[in-house]
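Many introductory courses stop at the sequence. We go one step further.
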Amino acid sequence: MKGIEIKSETDVQIDLNVTSYIPDEYIKDSSKKIEIYQNIALCKNEKDIQNIIDEIIDRFGNIPKEVENLISIARIKYLAKQIGLSKITSKNVDTCTTIIFTFEQSNIKIDVNEIIKKYGTAIKFSNGIKPSITLKTKTKDEKQILSQITKFLCGIGDGGIGDRH
């Protein structure tokens, strides 16, 4: 019997210092809240993200900041999967936030020169079994941090650093 090769999808661990949840005041019914959490977790592309945003607005009204952050994290997660990241973490240091992107394997294909050209000294590369890139931002603002991570991932996904959004 011939089998069909199934690609195992590695889960990306996201540990960011951002407030991301569905407030009780926004969705009171716990089963509806669980349904929305599941729908957000199942997003695999931008179309899925837009569909869930439309659904949430239609059913519950304007989206609060915490839910926007949750949706941004879902976007970051599917972008990270596309480029082989296993983990994204952040640390607040003084007035800055440091973001660490850890790759699943060492055979990554990114344009290091483009990244250095765009980010200069704000970027640091670490080689090893699971290489990482550390990005130092000049903000602690949650929305800006999520936006910078998304922009960075879109650029790596293009093979360098660019703007897809």
